[in-house]
Structure prediction request, 459 residues.
Amino acid sequence: MSKFKEKFARFRRWPHAWLAIILVVSFISHLGLLWFPNEMVLDEAYYVEAGREYLQQGELQQAEHPPLAKLFITAGMQIFGDNPFGWRIMPAVFGLITIFFFYLICRELKFSNLVTNVATAMVAFENSIYLMASVAMLDIFTVALMLGGFWAYLARKYPAAVALLALAALCKLTAIFGVTAIGLHWLFFRRDRALTLAASGLAAYVGVLLLIPGLEFILTGEWSNPLERAATLVSVPTTITFENSTHPSAVHPWQWVLGYQVMPFWWSPQYISAVNPTVWALTIPVFIWTAWLGIRRKHETAFFAAAWIFATLIVWIVIGYITDRITYIFYFVPIVGGIVVGIAVFMEKALEWARRPSAQFLATQIQASADAIDIEDLTLETQAEVIEAEILPDTELIEEPPPVEIQALTDEDIPEDIRLQTKKRLKLVYWGIGIFLAAHLLFFLALSPFTGLWPVSQG
Prediction:
């Protein structure tokens, strides 16, 4: 028993312990869902059928999308069989990859352990992301690889960032919006290694053009013109407009944030695409605040969050206005991470506010100590000069007095009233974070297939 306690204590001290718990809980909960329903859900009818065609006849399906995500789905079917588990296992795996890359993004943005763990839990148990990791559709593959590109960019691994974004675009072309987020952040805050970025971008562009027909050749045995395939991928989606198409859940991109959207995928278990209200309600406030903080206050992390939301939401709104393109609420999935990063910035600001009384006192004491040392050193130097000039003119300079060290200050040196003020503020912030996370998880449970509590009309 003592060995178990020792190992458990060591696990708790491990800085990535909460990530491991989140990943395990997420994956186990997905394993319980993958077999249900035993029929194809929504667009699974297209992508599972595409996998069957690849495996049985080598025919190209869903030509309006690149092949990589469909290839991942086909791989799951090849390994685990043409059954619900085989259809959905790869989306579940890429759901874990999404969580992992978001955690790495939080680490690169230098969030505290508490904020990193809370933000990661919010992404892991956000309904729209969780749902897309439960069905055989394209979006979770795109988001996972796009987040990988963001992490690599923040870590200044520019070739890897471009490669991951290129792979995301090979799943779904909307991943290209991620380039806008990186480009804005780079222009405002970095402007380094421009040649490396340009060369990587050019190589990725050529690679994507060639890989699309290349992957399809592996699957079908037929080679297509890269430029013609690229033109098809761009042109076909623009024809799916409100003028020539209808769907009961079709919305304009601006409707994602102007009204709460719920799109039923399946009734039993209840699969519904809807963004957690704790995330959805903060979309516009977080975007405005982080944009202001990033531009006016030069806050780099806040600017990255704003650039992320701009690239995945505002760009979509512009495109939707120009083209009248039909969209659905599950297109919101790539935006979620940017909103949560903005929420994490706010949590860090709240913790900074809570610790400010103690921090200000310590800073004042350190400055006072430094000023006192400067005065003492000046006095000693002046005394030495007097002795040298008037008393001992023919002797060597006297030795310089030893440096005076600043005494280290600890929490014990902080007055009791300031410590109590800091403690009360921290308690308030911790309670606020805890209540917010609890509300987020409750909304997730209400929306998720586990409870089916969210009211949805079947009409």
Remarks:
- The first strand starts at residue 263 and ends at 266.
- Confidence is low (pLDDT under 50) at residues 389-398.
- The radius of gyration is 28 Å.
- Residues 2-355+427-447 form one domain.
